[in-house]
Every structure is written in structure tokens, then in C-alpha cells.
Amino acid sequence: MHTYRMTPLALAALALMASAGVQAQTAPADEADIKALAQQLETLKANYAQEVRRLRELDMQVQAMQARLSGKTGPATGAAAAPPPVVAAATTPPSGDGYASSAAEAQQAQQASKRSVDDVKQQTATLFTRRFTLENSLSYARYDRKQVTLNGFLALDAIFLGNIAIENVESDTLTYNLAARWGVTPSMTLNLDVPYLARKTVFQKGGAGGSAAAIAQEETSGNGIGDISLSGNWRLNQEKGRWPETVLNVGVTAPTGQEPYGVDWKVLERDEDDFIRFAVPGDQATGNGVWQASLGLSAVKTADPAILFANIGYIHSFEGSFDDLDGNPDTVNPGDVKLGGSIYFGAGVAFAFNERTSLSMSFSDKLSRRASTRYKGGQWVKVIGSDANAATLNLGITYALNRNTTLVSQLGIGLTPDAPDFTLAFRIPYML
Hints:
signal, Lipocalin, Transporter, four-stranded antiparallel sheet, single chain, alpha+beta, coiled coil, 19 strands
């Protein structure tokens, strides 16, 4: 039997070979553990950065609520300090997760939302955080209405015998309004509106001189101060939970403008029997001629990123007496006028694009009952065709020029024949 002995050199070689085999087996396992730990570390860093952003956003909200409760406009004191931004800056994930990636962005978003809400409240007369506001506005309205007048009878239910007159009225109105808003208390605001109107109206009538092809045309104009209104807004309750902020609006309008009654008429065409065929008013009216009182309710609800608003109200017209109510230039008949009451309502939504710009869309409608007239010593008679339904679709863009000044532009599109074809308005409120 042979016995084999290994030399020290052989033993060392075997030991080295065994160690290399063990390392080859354990290397893949160590690399997998390192990758797993690195992935867990990145996940923890991302979660920590997200929690830091949430804490900062909550901190901003708490400061805003504390400032609102204390009546301050700046950030509240004593707020918790923000966590160190080292990790958040090193591992900042994309901002599309709905959270601000830094305190500056959170504050910027909060300021943008607050400014948009203030602009919407300024337009709906529900803003009470400003001590004084001076507003200049300029608006243009276009009105075009055509009607066919038939004066005769039908023969054999098919042939019309008589006169056919095609009338067209085109009116352009430019209005400048100076308004002052005074915040008496944190829940009450007084408003004064002083308008100045410039109007031009073109009257066209077919069948001039007895010829169906002839058209007579006359242009009249007028300008002057309109009806001055004084109103007040009282905040009934602030926005809380599902309940919107509601405001009570009360106003009165004085007949300071030129009334449409008793104006001089210009006769353009008469028949052989002295019947007036075509006559137009010499001057254009700038007011209603009667006192009016209004009562309304406005509501605003923030639903980030949208701002919802709505209003409803009633306008009552008081009875007025005038020296002449007859539209005939040859006669003078004094009497009384009682305009029909009007119900108005509307609703809309606004969206903030950034800290300066917001877009609003709204619908408004005004329903007016028939007016009544009473000649001296006579009875009240309803005026046929004096009722109206004026519905408008409004599109507006608000741009903040600076901290205290805003540019509001609005386009109104008439949806019914009683509403203007379109209106274009620009307003610049300067808030202190």
C-alpha cells in the first residue's frame, strides 16, 4: 500500500483554489444585495422628499388660515420652521405629482389662487379685503334689429293688399363708467357708479315716397351723464366647507340721465292726408327716467383650480310722471309711466392660468315685464312689446398689471333679440 504525502507548496495551491471558488460563488449574491439596498435607499429618499413637500404645503395653508383669522395679509408668526432642503434639493422628483417641489412654488401657487379669487370677487362685488377701490371702465355695445311692418289686409288668404315697410335700427353705445368702492367694515362695502354715455342710432325705413325700392335713412345721436347708482354689499357668511361665501346686494338708481319721454321728434315723411310715415327722435336718451331699487344675492365658491360664482336679484321701477308720453310729434299728452319689474340671474366659472392671468366664462339673463302707461285722466294700459328677455354669454380675461391694478376685458355675445348683438368692455380697478 502506497502512502501519498503533499508538500507544503501543494497544500497552499489547494487552499488558494478553494478560496477562489468560494469568492466566485458569493460575489453574485453580494452584488444583488447591494442593488436591492440601493433601490430601497432611493425609494426612502423619494418618500422623504415627498413628505417634506407635503409638510411645507401644510405649513403654507396653516399660515394663510392664521392670517385670515387674525386679519393680517402677511404670513403668520410663530409658524414651524421648514425642514432642511438638502435632501429635497438632491432628490427632487417631477412636480407632476400635484405637490409643490419647494416652499417658493407652494407660496407662488397660493398667491396665484388668492389673486384669482380676489379678481373674481372684485367682478362680482363680493370682495371686502380692500379699503378703497377706484375703477375706470369703458364699454361698447352694438344693437341691430330689423322688422317688417304690414299695414293692410289679406285677400283670399293669399294676396296682401296694403303697404309693406321694412325698418332697420342700428345703435352704437359707448359708455364710460367711474366707480368708487369703499370698504366701510370687513363685511360691508359701499359703491358709487357714475356713467357717461355717447349714443348713435341709424334709422332706416323702406317704402319711402310710396316706392317699395326706396329707402329713407336718418341718423340721430346723443351724449351725456347716465343714471347714477348707489349700492351696498353686506357679507352674510364666509366660505366654509361646502357652503359658499354669500353677499347681499342692495342698490338704488337715480334718474339723472336724459329720459326717453317728451323728446323732440323730427318728421321726415308725411302722406297726402298729413299722416306721419317716418319720424325719428331728435336726441337719444341716456337714462330710464324713473327711480329704481335693486335687491340681489351673490355667491362665490372656490373649487381649486376653479372658482364658481352666481347671482340672482330683482329690480323694481317706481312710477314717474312726464309732460309728454305720446310719440306723435303733433300732439302733447302728459301722463305717468310704470316700467315693469326685472329679474336677473347668472352663473359662471373662472380658471387661473398663472399668478397674473385668469379666464372666466359666464351666462347672464334679465327678464323684464311689460311697462304700463296712463295718460292724464285715463287708465293704466300695458305697452305691447315692452317685455324683454336679454340673455348674454360672457367671456372674460383678467390680467394683473401689478399688485394693486388689474385689467379686466370681457366680451358679451347676445343670445336673444332683446340683448345687444355683442358688447366689449374693459375695466381697470385700482385697489388700495
